[in-house]
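The authors assume throughout that readers already know how a fold can be written as discrete tokens. A single example would do more here than another paragraph of explanation. An entry of this sort, consisting of the sequence and the corresponding backbone structure tokens, reads as follows:
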Amino acid sequence: MSLSKQLLILISTLFLIIFSLNFVLSVNNIKGYLEGEAKIHAQDTATSLGLSLSPYMINETDSIIETTMRAIFDRGYYQEIKLVNVELQTLVSLTNTADIEGVPAWFVALLPMQTGTAESEISSGWRIAGVVSVTLNPGYAYLKLYEQVVSSFYYSLIALLLSIALLLLVLRITLAPLKKINLMAIEIAKGNFATIDPLPWTTEVRNVTMSMNKMSQKVEAAIKALNTKLESVAKKLQQDELTGLSKKGVFLTDMKQLFVTDTEAFIGLIKIDSLSGLTKELGESAIDQFIKDFSEVLSHLSAGSDQGDISVYRFFGAEFALIIREVNLEQVTQIGLALSNAFATIGGRYHKPDIVHIGITPFNPVATTESMLLAANEAYEQAQLIGANSFYVRSGEDQAKDIAQWKTLVFDVIDQCRYQTDFIGQINDLQTGKVLMQEAFTRVLDVQGEPVAIGTFIAIAEKFAKIVDLDKGVTEKVLTYLKTEQIEHALAINLSTRTIKNPDFRAWLLTQLQSNKAIAPQLVFSLSAYAVTQDLSVYQEFISFVQQNHARVMIKRFEAQSMSSEVLNSLRPDFIRLSRDMSHGLALDQGKQAFVEAMQGIGELLDIIIFAENVQADEDLNCLKQIAIAGASR
């Protein structure tokens, strides 16, 4: 019940109690007053009538006696007027038993009144000739009392209604800041750090508002500081310090984009030959300048190319890589030739005619990143056989045939449900060791019974829209497993972008969650951080839909370049699982430690649980414990 209702009920109850007591006292006072007035009036009438009848009491049968008494009685205020002689014989008796209209019977029964009765002796000469008694009709007193009660009741009711209306207005004005504070707290919980201005005039509420404003400002400052730290650390983790080029981690993320979007592209591998020998000849400072000049050629190529979109990366030392998007074989050849000439020019400056070779291979949507890097390395080795600063581009003639074979396998496996669901990647609480979560992993065998590369299988299933059926099947298996095995920890299910966008899947999932409400909180839908950033509005809607139906969401493979705290605030997942690269070598890498600490701070402020993935070294695990990460897999 709201505070305004509580105050309204309390004050109204107090008003009702006071009114009731005052009303009862007032009615009793009026009743007593009317009874006293009735007695006085009866006595006055009896005295007056006795004096009037005194001269005529010599003859008890005189008609004037009755006429005089009837003249007074006919006024209607009397219930009975009676005259008796000294022998107590009734000479005249006048009575009126009619009820007074306008007074309900229940009122008379509820408030009995004493009848006003008085007597007066009548003298004739020096002796008592008789006694006249007068009894007033109580109906008139009841009428006056009833009219007074009704009048008091309505006036009091009007006063009560006006008081309540005034009270509501005062409470509305007084408690309005509390509603603002409540809305402000909700907005702070959502990550919107508003303040209340102007401040309310009530002292206590004003103090609370000032405290809330300070808290909001401090939390906002903390979020901004963490976000600034996160961006700074992420930038350092993404960029090579010497050249400013992106690191291998960014390359791997961009490769994921190629798999998701199925963009036509080429992968290039560039290696500086005998860098160690050059270091001995030129010295460290000179070799640093050499690598900067070398990287500048690649940067200029990336910024100024009119043939496709080119991204440049430095893996380590003498090894660089390229992703060349939206180009054909002829354009890639021209790019390779331009690089070959530019590197020959740099080699001439350092008196080294042969410094680099370039291997290029087409992007293969049914292959893995590792296999394509191996293919680019083979092309690099072919380039070494061609000549100084040469390049070689591999052919992709067999890709269409491979995709057709994969398509047949994918359709057959999914239609026949020839896949198994295992539960791997156990995440344990870093403080208690308790199992927090496992991940559902799909395992597929080909017709020969050999394991199939699941990454390629998923990519082909997504390409040909079979991934929705696969995700439905895996979800059903997980629900069955939870019910039959009575699992207590959470199970994560990987969902693709195509599945999340599918309206039929959404309707089907709603039915499943509503029919399995008891175990719905144990379902955690796992979403790739990269996929989420590509379509934020769709994923934000899906996350809200899942959470409204009591299931939960985890963003996995979270890296330094994944997303800002503002985006996390708008998404509000239940869990974030950092990529395995973030925990590898964590104990010895200050940059990674700063990033993980910032993520943990943001998680605490936004109520998001942070996990680590595939932690190998004990010292890295201890470092995660010190940072207070909730759980990790090994």
In short: Residues 401-633 form a domain with the TIM Barrel fold (CATH 3.20.20.450). The chain has three domains: 3-162, 248-397, 401-633.
